[in-house]
Specification:
The protein is an alpha+beta fold and 166 residues long. A five-stranded antiparallel beta sheet has the order 2-3-1-4-5, with helices on both faces. The chain is 59% helix and 17% strand. α1 packs across α3, α2 packs antiparallel against α4 and α4 crosses α5.
Amino acid sequence: MGQLEEKKQIVADLKEKFASAQSVVVVDYTGVNAKQTTDLRKSLREAGVDYIVTKNTLFKRAAEETGYGELNSVFNGVTAVAFCANDVIAPANIICKFIKDQKVMTIKGGAAEGKVVDAAQVNVLGTLPGKETLLAQVAMCFKAPLQKVCFALEEIRKKADGEATA
């Protein structure tokens, strides 16, 4: 396979990743050593996130062709992109935790559910709890009032039974 065909295949793969991604995080990985990269890739892979490093021109072409052209300004320097097709929060969560722990790498920008976002918005996504935690919190919001009603009804029943026997 020639060099041009290889680049076309990479762009095609990137276009597919952009098109199916719920979340995209673009980072500058300056200062990240091999062990840190391996650990980060492992964490991302376990969460179903693809972490790709390639030429900025290929990222730009794929982004432009999939409606993410606004991201082209961040494709400069040493760039890696994390794509996730099934979770909006996971890539930002993992990368923000990595940056906090390792003090290397910076977020350049990204996209969430098809909308391009800046680095600050990616950082906000990174502070949110995971999907399962958010769902549990929502469930508790529904459960708590019902639980209080049940306790109140139980107290009413106990008083009614106590008065009936007295």
